[in-house]
Amino acid sequence: MEQIEQLQKEALEKIRDCQQGSALNELRVYYLGKKGPVQGLMKNMKSLSSEEKPIFGQKVNQLKQELSQAIEEKRQELAQKEMLAKIENEKIDITLPGRKPHLANLHPLNLVTQELEDLFIGLGYQVIEGDDIVSDEYCFERANIPKDHPARDMQDSLYIDPNWLLRTHTTAIQMKVLEESAPSLPIKVVCPGKVYRRDDDDATHSHQFMQMEGLVIGENVTLSDLKGTLEFMARKLFGQDREIRFRPSFFPFTEPSVEVDVSCHICNGKGCPTCKGTGWIEILGAGEVHPNVLKMAGYDPEKCSGFAFGVGIERVAMLKYGIDDIRHFYTNDMRFMDEFKRFE
C-alpha cells in the first residue's frame, strides 16, 4: 500500500508540472504502459494472502483510473493553453488600414478603342465585332477585291488554307453586316478588332494590329457627311481646333477614295517633327462605298449610298499619347503601362 501511495504521489506531481503535450504522452506511456511501474505493482500479488489480493487489486485499478483521469484533464488544459497562444500569435488588428492592392490600368489601345466606341455610340452607331478567322470571300471578294486584283498584294495575308485566313482588315465584318441587314436601311456600324498581315515588326509596323472601321449606308449619304463625321471624331480625339483634309487615293471597296489628314495637334499646323514639317498628320483612309460592294450585298446602288472609313488604333494612340515605337504596346512593360493611369 505504501508503494501505491508513493507512486500515486510521484505520478500526480509530474503530471501537474508537465507543460507540453509530448511530455505528457511520455508520462502516460511510462506509468500506464504494460512495462510501467503501475502494472509492475501486480507482481506483488503472489506474496499476498487470499484476503489481501482483492483489496490490493482494487487499489491498483483505482490508481490507474486516477492517473488516466489526471492525464486527460492535463491534456485538455494544455490544449486550451496552446489554442489561446495560437490565437494570440495569429491575431489580426482589423482596425488597421488594409494593404492597397495593385490594380492594373487600361491598356492605351483599349483606352482609344473605348473612346472611339463611346463617340460613335453617341452618334447612333452600333458596335459590331466578328471572328478573327474569315473566309476569302468576305475578306476580299465581297470587298470588290477579286483573286487576280493587284490590291491583294497590298495586304500580304496569313492563310490557313486556300479558303480561310486571318482577317487582314475589319472590312470582313462590314461585309457580313451588309449581307445580313439587306435590304434594310439605314446601317450605321463601327467594327473594332485585331487584324493580321505578314509583316516584319519594327518601330512603326507589326504583324498584328488593331483597326476600327465604320460603315454608313442610307439614302443620299455623301462625302460631305463623311467629312463632318471624321471632323467631329478628330476634334474629340485631338482637340477642338483640329481640321481635316481629303487627298485622293485608291481603295477597291470605295469610290471615290480618300486619305484623311488631321491638322497637327502638337504644332497646330505650323510644322514640327511629329508632322514632318507639313502641319498635317495622316490618320485614316475612307471613301464612298463602291457600287459593286452594295450590289453583292443585295442593295441597289441607284437607291442608296454610303461611306466607309478605317482607323488604325495604334496610329491614333501613338499620335495621341506621343508614343514613338509600336512595339511598346505588346511588350507588357509595367513601367510603360503605368504611364496611362492618369488617362482613365
Automatic annotation (TrEMBL):
InterPro entries: aa-tRNA-synth_II, aa-tRNA-synth_II/BPL/LPL, Phe-tRNA-synth_IIc_asu, Phe-tRNA_ligase_II_N, Phe_tRNA_ligase_alpha1_bac, Phenylalanyl-tRNA_Synthase, tRNA-bd_arm. One of its GO terms (cellular component) is cytoplasm. Binds 2 magnesium ions per tetramer. It catalyses: tRNA(Phe) + L-phenylalanine + ATP = L-phenylalanyl-tRNA(Phe) + AMP + diphosphate + H(+). Keywords: Aminoacyl-tRNA synthetase, ATP-binding, Coiled coil, Cytoplasm, Ligase, Magnesium, Metal-binding, Nucleotide-binding, Protein biosynthesis. The keyword Secreted does not apply. Its EC number is 6.1.1.20. Residues 184-319 form the Aminoacyl-transfer RNA synthetases class-II family profile domain. GO terms for molecular function: ATP binding; catalytic activity, acting on a protein; magnesium ion binding; phenylalanine-tRNA ligase activity; transferase activity; tRNA binding. PROSITE patterns: AA_TRNA_LIGASE_II. GO terms for biological process: phenylalanyl-tRNA aminoacylation. It holds the Pfam family tRNA-synt_2d. It is found in: Cytoplasm. Its cofactor is Mg(2+). Mg(2+) binds at E255. Residues 57-91 form a coiled coil. Belongs to the class-II aminoacyl-tRNA synthetase family. Phe-tRNA synthetase alpha subunit type 1 subfamily. Tetramer of two alpha and two beta subunits. This is Phenylalanine--tRNA ligase alpha subunit. It comes from Faecalicoccus pleomorphus.
